[in-house]
Amino acid sequence: MTIKRHDSLNDKCMSAQPATDFMVAYGIALVIISVAIYIIFSTSIFNPNVLPPSCTPAPSFVCNHYTFNTSTNNFTIQLSQATGSMITINGAACSSSANALNASLPAYGNVQLLSNAVAPSFYPPNGLPNGGLSIASGASGIFSVYCYSGSGIAFGKIGNSFIGALWINYTTVGLPGNNIMQVAQFTVPYT
What we know:
The protein is an alpha+beta fold. It contains one helix and nine strands; from the N terminus they run H-E-E-E-E-E-E-E-E-E.
């Protein structure tokens, strides 16, 4: 006669093994998913404040290149013109919106579009030459200004965007008087 021995400890170990495998496998998967979610949100991939850069120039003007530097808080643009004559930019302004009473002027900052010689606080160092910036028709010039919003000089975190417009006060060679106009509306990321 054979006596069958029942080993309850061995049976319990055998039934616990699949449960342990299940918990380890799903635990590792949960850790991997958690790390992936953390990386996605910490790199601001889904940041709603990030908009694609864009620039819509006025007729006869072209936005060649433009940046907003967070370390100096200035907006720099390479602006081309094709008005048919040489122009001299005497003053410039960058604002988050137009003036409510006169849409041809900015709402904030250098609202009178004064020159660098008259109002240097609106321009970063070497932003716009004191005598103005002359640009031939079909050519471009580079200058910098501070951009303003309702709270003063605009600033933001790297990766967020500034939405605004650029105005210039310019003279045309051979014609009397100054012209003030909005030459571009733009969205630019802070870099």
